[in-house]
Design goal:
The protein is 61% helix and 6% strand. By secondary structure, the protein is of the alpha+beta class. The strands form four sheets. Strands 2, 3, 4, 5 and 7 form a five-stranded antiparallel β-sheet that branches.
Amino acid sequence: MIAFQGFEGPGVVLGRAQELSGPVLAAVDAGTVVLWVLLFPIAGTAVTWLGGRLLGARRGWLALLASGVAGFTVGLVLAGAMTDWLWRSWEMVGLTMVFGTLLTMVFAVGQDLIAAPGTLAQGNAAGLIAIGRKRRISTAWSPVSRYRELVGLARRNGLLSRRIDLTDPTSATWMGPALRATLEQAGGLFVKIGQVASTRSDLLPPALCDELAQLRSGAEPAPTEVVRPEVEAHFGRPVEEVFPGFVWEPLASASIAQVYAATLPTGDEVVVKVQRPGLDTLIERDTIALMQLAGLLERRTTLGLNLSPTGLAGEFLDGIRAELDFTAEVANALALAAATPDDCGVRIPAVYPTMSDRTLLVEERVHGYSIDDTAAMRAAGHDPALLARRLLSTTLHHLFRAGVFHADPHPGNVLVEDDGTIVLIDLGAMGRLTKQQRDVVMQVLIGATTGDPSLMRQSLEAAGVVGDGVDLAALDRSIDEFIAVHAAGAGGLDAGLFEDLLTMLARYGMQPPRWMASLGRMFVTLEGTLTTVDPSFSLVDAAMDEAKDMLGPDLDVSSLRRVAEAEALTQLPRLRRLPQRIDDLLGQAAQGRLSLRMSLLNDQRDVDTITSLVNRTVLAVLAASLGIGSVLLLSVEGDGKELVLDEVLGYIGLAVAAVLTLRIVAGVLRDGRT
């Protein structure tokens, strides 16, 4: 039998410690006190973190901290009792860490056991904590200076002075201006993130979205000596050879780009939109910072577990990257121009694709005034209500006929020329809808107008919004109440029903597709623009009238006949095979060869349930085996004065068995089924 000299068995030490009569702190000097004062927070933090990781179930920092303090304190007492309070010995430090970790787990599971029913995070929200991929230290630390800048701006604007609760309307009211000011001052990617976030009223309070929608990315213009080399590098020759006239005083300057007036050799007036130099480096740094913050929220907060901030951040970044690519804006302008009828009184500025690339855009210069300038409109002899109706009609034509729409039609992006022509500018953000998505939008509008909740639910199911785990009866009741609330208004339905619809779906854990949120925000922005022109304007009611006129020709007899013929041609191959397949089935039934095969694991939820059950069973068997084996090892009798290998393995086995058992108990308490 192998023995370790110089270390008494824990059983002997504990028995002798019980006979200790002196005070435990009698022999402690000032140096020892200083060492343990320094060690306590470091070791306590390590014990708390390790205990939480070993349990696997997510829990709040406050609850885990309380468990860590209690576990470490009791572990310290046990370690001291077993080592005769040898404060300067590594044995006491090691035993404190071991006992502290195990007892932290015990206290954490105890909190779960006494928690009020329904208060624990359950299901996916209580899933195992995954250890992320290792990252380069330079990548992890590169945005630190940006964090300091953002924290300083947030503190200066009062964003950190009060508790933030997105479920409290008053919190969203005061937080909106502070957050908008912080993002505007931060510039770069954070302005764009705020603008994109303003479209997610399904996730954020409407008051906060309205405030973020006012974000404007103004910034000090970059010097001419910095911008000129970028422009000349793009064209490969001096600016004067490309543009006989070029005004280096920017018409507008934002955190992303600057806009200059210029003249082509043909005499045509254009604007040149130049991306700010060094933007790629700033965007890369802000992207790293954003993904780190999103990951922290997802791992450490209940809100993050429910909303998946990393997925939302990735969605935001994809949209922002597309908007920062000026070739996408050129494609958007060409697509929207092709979808605009020639005689509708609305047009899209001409773009110059051969002169544009990812960082520089050349397009026609428009002379006009904003559509919300009704005084100038009337002075020019135009009827504001007529122009509002024209803008809506063209937008619906874009939407339902071509499946494209300007995603941000605020007054600054809608200009009116002297002859009354409406011009849509700034096409970096444009939405696209498939035929099925357009049908869903129409069904939602019809269902809301006619008060038909089943039609609205069917449209949401067609959009892939309603998942398998949704209570359809409760959803129908909520939709019915939603329609009753919105249909009760004296002014008719408004565009706010889209935002309220997304908010209602979020209560059922449903994540609407991005196109639906973007479309809802577009309708809200468009209604705000139209009511500025004509305060009595009701967008949804007017949209239904326009849609009836627009879809009317599709509902006549000849159109229905063409649809039926096209559907028949599509189904003809299946119809030809149907008689043969019926005959084969009847033949197999007559001969007794007809069989039915079923798979019990077609549903991923079944696979997940069985996988969880098998994993827990394996862990439970392993924990029990380790526990029994460890007890048997400890039952081997020694001479009582030396710590033998059997005891070492026994205590290690008991510790591992305790960890596995507590992990299983924590998972069972939080699986949402107990």
